[in-house]
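debug: dumping io for the single-chain case to check the tokenizer round-trip. Nothing else runs in this session.
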Amino acid sequence: MKYMTAAEIRERFLKYYESKEHFRMPSSSLVPNDPQLLFTIAGMVQFKPIFWGKVKPVHKRVTTCQKCVRTNDIDEVGKTKRHHTFFEMLGNFSFGDYFKEEAIKWAWEFSTVELKMPEEKLWVSVYEEDEEAYKIWRDVIGIPEEKIVRLGKKDNYWGPAGPTGPCGPCSEIFFDTGENLGCPDPDHCSPACDCGRFLEFYNLVFTEFNYNEDGSYTPLSRKNIDTGLGLERLASIIQGVDSNFETDLFKPIIEKIQELTGMDYHRNKEEMTALRVISDHVRSAVFMISDGVIPSNEGRGYVLKRIIRRALTFGWINGMKNPFIFKLVEPVIEIMGIQYPELGEKSEIITQIILEEEKKFVRTMEQGLEMIDNLLKESKRENSEKATLSAADAFKLYDTYGFPVEVTREIAEEKGVIVDLDGYRELMNQQRKQARDARGDKEYTKVAKVYEQLNPDTITSIEFIGYDRLSEESQVLFLLKDDELVDELVEGQTGDIVVRITPFYDEKGGQVSDKGIIYNQMFRANVLEVFNPYNKVIVHRVRVEKGSVQKGDQVTLEVDNMTRLATARNHSATHLLHEALKRVLGLHVKQAGSLVSPNRLRFDFSHFKPLSTDEIENIEQMVNEQIMRAMSVNTDIMNLEDAKKSGVIALFDEKYSQTVRVVKMGDFSAELCGGTHVKNTGQIGPFKIKSETGISSGVRRIEGSTGWNTLEMMDEQQKILTETAAQLNSDPSALLESVKKALEQNKELQRKATELEEKLSRQNIRDILGSKIKEVDGIKYLSIIQEDSSQSVMRTVADNAIKKVNGGVICIFNKQAQSVSFIVKVSDDIAGKRLHAGKMAKSLASILGGGGGGRPDFAQAGGKKVENLDQAIEALPEIIKNASK
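debug: decoded output
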């Protein structure tokens, strides 16, 4: 075989199948348009609708090099020669065109002619019931029968790529790497043996069935070909190396890691594993971020976060205590950038996101590693034969320190400790339930079940006309009180009204429902909220203020115009805000949630760090510029696929029907949205960002206001400004300088007060040094009580006092109304040798109902049990004895 780079192999494959009239398609995103999958896990994922027969293919023959992510075997990555989280899958596909014979002939020709693999080194396998494939290999290709292995469903049946979908029997080509000394039966070794001698590199899937939810198989309308050839594995064969990690796809990355960390791939198994893990995981991270995934605590973001943190954990264990993964982005792009030019275009944002996640990890590790170490030691002391880290401790590490349980488990396994994962999962489920209860999630299950009993034709005839009108006459179809259908609602009662036609917008998509009234000559009710239980029927929850209403009555429904307009202002503003965020921060920004009400707007979005003051100002200014342009706000009804192709923003996790409503604001913004909006951006009025905060890892939140709410807020701020200026005898325009001057004056007064306090304290020390120094076991000690003192004064007093007490310790207590803090200072000549300040502080703090610790020569702590101060001082002799052992 001739040596080829991975890039040459990739290009040779694609060109070969182009010569067989295949259309070369670019790789699809790692984020698939498929609700069953988090990531693209195989080359055929983007073609599933074609395999299903739901979409007609534009090209009947296609070839691709698909980027893929799989994490089901993440624990094996690094331990073996070939497991990866990110990999490239070469593939050729036929949609109802050629089938088994052509697929087998071309796969063999590519392997033996294009790659010049020696035929004597190649074996094949077929599904045990696939006689057609067996005969093609034997009779058409000429493979000896003894080199054609029949395997069962576990090994030679592929799919589906998800719970359901296309699947079928497959046939594989294997490369014989040579006799394996570890094989239990070397005389009969074949691809059926799992000793590792035979390396599968080309999988031909004959897709002819669909696997259904009920476990049955349905023949597809067209027989298809789906092949997969892992580039990393093929490169290891062609380049003649022992593992995928020694190919040119990984070698430059590993060399850079060795340069940064001092690790050596060939030094020992532990460093080899670490280098493999880090090199694999950084490739995954680079590609995932390039396709818009941001580290977070759920979904794809959590997978990315876990991958980055797993790589960092292996770096940390091998001495890398500072960020370094971000420095590996460059070699990854140097290797992969020609095939995937988007990597180079996004290199800066990829580097920034990884660096920010590394900084968070370092902070987390510094806080939690000592705790992990102590917990693991305690687990071993309690049960040396079968040490187990409890579910409660594993959960605390996650909940308090942000340690994913997978990281905890890996560190524990290194020390021979088992983690109670089942108990941990139960605690996580309890926390999720508590979170749901705390949110007060609305449950309309009973209401939905009531309406399920009704005539479906009546339900589907209910119409919302609120986009065009705010008032409408209609007929009462149903009444509901206390989850039961009734014939009448009377004055003072709260219940539900369902009508045939309504202008009231029900709460959904982050927008609150309309408010208003429902009335006729004999009846009037205030609409409290409008909801649509399980998207079945629009329900108006009302309180009857006058008279009564009966099923069948004619009523007028009237939406409160001012409330609707205020809500519309905020909703339209979120669309402008979303686009402004993308333009200022980058295209990785995606909506992660929102709340739109008459009084405020809240917008959650994916981003990896807090926004700077300049960024906030730029975003706010951009939104206001679009408002001042007074652009028309138009809505169009479009086919979903056409809307997406036109570049309209859609929330990936949102479920849309095939017909969607597109809201466009001039040439600035276009989104799929079912909410209510202003007619012209000028109606939004002044927009103001009130706050920008982080709500979880990788998710930021902006709260803002528009229209009258912004003006009221600005009026209130102006009043505060004027009153503050008056208090400082300043003009509002010169307020900043006046505040700076006042702060400087205050700082100077504080400095003088501290000097005076320290002077008095030194005087106090001189008065008590002679009479109050005591001694235990040859160690002098002195306790001093101060009231409402500052930390700086306490430290100054301690530093001065210890000079007078050679071979001793000073304890200074600061007594306050609700707490006691203290400092322990041990002289240098006995610190860490005869006495440990940190141990003393821990013992004193336990008496005072608190905690703390420190170094051998200095420690500080405190507690809330002020009443135990005398007890703590009386215990000093015994504490000194124990701390000096």
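debug: round-trip ok. DSSP finds 26 helices and 34 strands in the chain.
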